[in-house]
Write a structure and sequence with these properties.
With 224 residues, the protein is mainly α. The chain has one domain. It has five helices and two strands. The chain has helices at residues 25-82, 96-118, 120-138, 153-157, 166-215, and strands at residues 2-7, 12-17. It has a two-stranded antiparallel ribbon with strand order 1-2. Helix 1 (25-82) runs antiparallel to helix 2 (96-118), helix 1 runs antiparallel to helix 3 and helix 2 runs antiparallel to helix 5. The longest helix is centred in the N-terminal third of the chain and has 58 residues, at 25-82. The chain is rod-shaped.
Length: 224
């Protein structure tokens, strides 16, 4: 017996085969398809890792916007406590510098809302890829299923006629299926990460819209 090893980026493929004789066409094709399956799973892994990483980075930037919103909300609470907005023209008794400060605050809130709406451009790009991934790998039949992987079925069904050693091949196959299962676990983690991102964006957008509505009370300070 001789050992064949393929240093594939997904995992090392290794099985034994008889040195005397030549493989049948369908055996050679099955083994080649087995290697091609590694190519496909490697692309899946790279895709899921990339999109999961993009979601994580986007979540970090979204948190920065949320921190800004919480700071602006705290400032509004402070201004409401220190400015008598019940007067018809509160600006008449207010120092000009304070009016400018409040105007600057108001503009900051509007800018925050504007930036958050623009932030959807990033969410939208991730959403397009999310739809493609879920349609391809999550909903319906999987393109490559660890529970129904039959690429090597003909080899195992007719093992007596094969040049490859099916015992070592089966051992390699089980290792491959474990890696494939891990890749689908990675897919699940990515889907959870995306769902968290989308949910947090929706909540932040809603809370920021409420803040924008709240700060409209300040408009009377500069006579609008």
């Amino acid at each position: 017996m001789k050992t064949k090893t393929i240093d594939h980026p997904l995992r090392k493929i290794s099985y034994r085969f008889r040195e005397n004789g030549f493989p049948l066409n369908h055996e050679a094709q099955a083994l080649n398809n087995y290697r091609l399956a590694h190519d496909q799973v490697w692309r899946m892994k790279q895709l899921f890792e990339k999109e999961k990483s993009e979601c994580q980075l986007t979540l970090i930037d979204l948190q920065i916007l949320d921190d800004d919103r919480m700071e602006q909300q705290s400032l509004l609470d402070f201004y409401k406590e220190n400015v008598d907005l019940s007067k018809e023209n509160p600006y008449l008794d207010m120092e000009p510098n304070y009016q400018v400060e409040l105007r600057n605050y108001y503009n900051s809130v509007i800018e925050l809302h504007h930036n958050l709406v623009k932030f959807y451009d990033r969410i939208g790009t991730l959403e397009k890829e999310y739809i493609i991934i879920t349609d391809t790998y999550f909903r319906g039949e999987k393109p490559i299923d660890p529970l129904n992987f039959e690429v090597l079925k003909t080899v195992f069904d007719h093992y007596e006629d094969m040049q490859v050693d099916v015992v070592s091949l089966d051992h390699d196959l089980q290792e491959f299926l474990r890696v494939l299962t891990d890749v689908y676990d990675l897919l699940d983690k990515y889907l959870i990460q995306y769902s968290q991102l989308y949910e947090q964006y929706s909540i932040l957008l809603k809370n920021t819209a409420l803040l924008v509505k709240e700060v409209q009370v300040l408009r009377k300070i500069w006579g609008e």
